[in-house]
Design a protein that fits this description.
Radius of gyration: 27 Å
Structural class: alpha+beta
CATH class of one domain: Mainly Beta
Strand content: 15-25%
Oligomer: single chain
Helix content: 10-25%
CATH superfamily of one domain: Immunoglobulins
Distance between the termini: 75 Å
């Protein structure tokens, strides 16, 4: 017996169909068929277009009868489809009046904004139709993955150490040694490595479906691609070209398996999401989806129908339109519920605060709804608190008590200081405290501290190049940031000079030492832990090459740096006082301030003066930390070009200072620290840091 609401009422060829269910939007499996539902406010008609997999021409087109439209939603159930072998799209008819923002074209077959899988790019960089690209079409997937009891981990935010990576770059180079390089499956094989390093959260650069052939071109005999993927085609579908199993339609399961394996190893997964613009570009861009479905709903338009470009990529999504806002929320909820992701980093998040005229809003509806959404209630939310239109909101982003921020001020200040700029010291003290000047009412966990990220120099390049070297991008070295706060330590690029090599390693360790002993949430760039390089390219957005790839052969060459970072992460995990989400610097149960700053002499520091030599000390109260005994962690920083004599603070009787880490080469693991011979003072070498433990 069939239920009345799934009984076909009409027929076209061998297919039967009837009016559908409005929700959910997209294509969803129902008894004996598929329910198709899609929104358009200003179209006058809609047609469902069905293809057999890989075929150029549809096998049937079914116009939606007018009675199948409720409000602004077209819905239809189609029976007798083999969901394993069909692809689908839509035609929308309506007025074409660009000056009014209307761009309907019934000759275009458009991608469903809610498609859960997208065909046409199942193998990275391959054109299946000779030189002609296959169109992007929706596919239907079964939501039947066996999670074996898995759920998002919900690690306390203050305890996170984030590791940013690009799925393809991480294992694409032959030196990675994985069976399926450049894929979700290949990344799964590297989980033991990440677990050994100690990170407990990976941030994946865009994994939503994008078109790597967007703006592709030949430069110097090499194809340049839309490599990073910050140009979304569909917000609900994983990037098929990142899956070894995509030719078999299994990209969703491959990504889910990766996330499950990360969770089994205690590592969260957050996605770098790009809701600020799409791959359709400006007025001259292609029709893919939104433009031909409901242009005025999905995009911010000028009074003459052109596209506002606060993203720097041709268009800007109309994020605070109620329909677009609901789509973003639906996408976020879907990734949390169907893929078990633990959180999101929002690219150019300040755009999400703009109204329909492009002006920033005090209480942006989209951000408020994300912050208070029931499904996202435990998800980590991170904002890149600026956009390409000049809106910079670091410290003032409308966080609604939930969003953390990429702290660009932390990055810039630490880079400037380590180069030898003592005037940055007063600001650096605040950054180490957790940026209390920026996040006084939100706590240090609002600050995502970082020195490097995908956008800019790697850590090794930061200490090896004074200038960017982006010639391989084919833009005459005009792309990429010019203000990098980098210093090559005396020679531009690679060198065999042992003194410069040693100085560069110390400088990398110096920055990592401060980063991982600062309050706030630290973020590492993949490969920095063993000095991966991009050979001075600070904008590798188009490079599907060794410039972007992690070169794993560098691991053996720089294993000492890996061990140093590994032990810094372990140190942070060992002492809860470093991770406190508090700015209270008053005395605790130890009788000492929880966090205090010193010059080379204890308790003597003018925090407003320029300075290249300072130290800071955490005093861990055992009762608050949940440990058996009190402890002290002392970090000494010498950014001066000569050795400096330091005097140590006096500590409680019965405790002794032990050396844990030194950027000059000392690495001692927990329980194996070296007791200092002189408990009152030490000499710290030029451009060096060290970490002492009192116990």
């Amino acid at each position: 017996m069939q239920l009345i609401d799934s009984f076909p009422t009409q027929k076209i060829g061998d297919l039967e169909y009837r009016s559908g269910r409005i929700f959910p939007f997209g294509a969803s499996i129902v008894d004996g068929g598929v329910n198709f539902s899609i929104f358009s406010k200003e179209a006058v008609s809609c047609t469902l277009v069905l293809y057999h997999h890989g075929q150029d021409k549809p096998f049937v087109e079914i116009p939606f009868p007018e009675e199948y439209r409720i409000g602004n939603v077209y819905s239809m159930m189609v029976f007798g489809l083999n969901i394993e072998t069909i692809e689908y799209g839509y035609r929308f008819d309506g007025p074409y009046s660009p000056m009014d923002g209307l761009r309907f074209d019934k000759d275009k077959v458009l991608l469903d904004p809610y498609a859960k899988s997208v065909s046409g790019r199942s193998v990275w960089g391959r054109k299946d139709n000779g030189d002609k690209l296959k169109p992007l079409r929706g596919q239907i997937i079964r939501e039947d993955y066996d999670w074996e009891g898995d759920k998002p981990l919900e690690i306390p935010e203050k305890d996170l150490v984030i590791y940013e990576l690009h799925v393809r770059s991480f294992t694409r180079d032959d030196s990675s040694g994985v069976r399926h390089p450049g894929t979700f499956a290949g990344l799964t094989e590297k989980i033991p490595y990440l677990k050994e390093l100690g990170v407990n959260c990976v941030e994946l650069m865009p994994v939503f479906e994008f078109d790597e052939f967007e703006n592709s071109r030949e430069v110097g005999g090499r194809t340049l691609y839309n490599y990073w993927g910050y140009s979304t085609v569909c917000f609900f579908a994983p990037k098929a070209g990142f899956a070894a199993s995509a030719p078999f339609g299994m990209e969703a399961d491959e990504l889910k398996h990766l996330i499950k394996k990360f969770h089994q190893n205690g590592i969260e997964v957050i996605l770098d999401v790009v809701f600020n613009h799409t791959a359709e570009g400006n007025e001259n861009g292609p029709y893919i989806s939104y433009r031909g479905i409901d242009n005025r709903t999905y995009y911010l338009l000028t009074p003459d129908g052109r596209y506002y470009n606060f993203s720097g990529c041709g268009n800007t999504m109309n994020c605070n339109n109620p329909v677009t806002r609901d789509m973003v929320l639906d996408a976020l909820r879907y990734w949390v519920s169907a893929y078990h992701v633990d959180g999101f980093r929002f690219d150019l998040a300040s755009i999400l605060s703009r109204d329909e005229a492009g002006a920033p809003m005090v209480y942006p509806p989209l951000l408020e709804r994300i912050a208070n959404d029931a499904v996202l209630g435990k998800s980590l939310l991170i904002a890149e608190a600026w956009d390409a239109g000049g809106l910079y909101q670091v410290g003032s982003f409308p966080a609604f008590g939930r969003f953390s921020e990429w702290n660009g001020k932390y990055r810039d200040c630490l880079r400037h200081f380590i180069k030898g700029s003592g005037e940055s010291a007063p600001e650096l003290y605040r950054r180490i405290r957790g940026s209390d000047d920026l996040y006084r009412f939100r706590g240090p966990r609002a600050s995502i501290n970082f020195v490097t990220c995908h956008d800019g120099f790697t850590l090794y390049d930061l200490v090896s190049y004074n200038e960017k070297h982006n010639e391989a991008n084919g833009e005459n070295n005009n792309d990429g940031c010019n203000d990098n706060e980098s210093w090559n330590c005396g020679v531009e690029g690679d060198t065999k000079d042992p003194q410069i090599i040693d100085l560069r390693k110390r400088q990398m360790k110096n920055m990592l030492t401060i980063l991982l002993t600062s309050r706030g949430i630290p973020m590492l760039l993949s490969g920095d832990e063993f000095a991966n390089t991009q050979w001075g390219n600070n904008n590798a957005y188009c490079q599907d090459s060794e410039i972007s790839y992690i070169i794993w052969s560098l691991f053996d060459k720089n294993k000492d740096l890996f061990e140093y970072v590994k032990n810094l992460v372990a140190l942070r995990n060992e002492y809860p006082v470093i991770r406190e989400n508090s700015f209270d610097l008053g005395n605790n149960g130890t009788g000492y301030p929880e966090l205090s700053f010193h010059s080379a002499k204890p308790w003597q520091l003018d925090e407003g003066a320029s300075n290249l030599c300072f130290s800071y000390m955490y005093a861990q109260d055992h009762a608050r930390a949940g440990t058996k005994k009190d402890a002290f962690i002392y970090v000494a920083v010498n950014a001066y070009w000569e050795d400096v004599y330091y005097e140590l603070p006096i500590i409680p009787q019965g405790m002794k200072w032990h050396l844990r880490l030194s950027s000059s080469g000392d690495v001692y693991s927990k329980g194996k620290e070296k007791t200092l011979g002189d408990q009152g003072s030490f000499m710290l070498g030029a451009r060096s840091t060290l970490v002492l433990i009192a116990k």
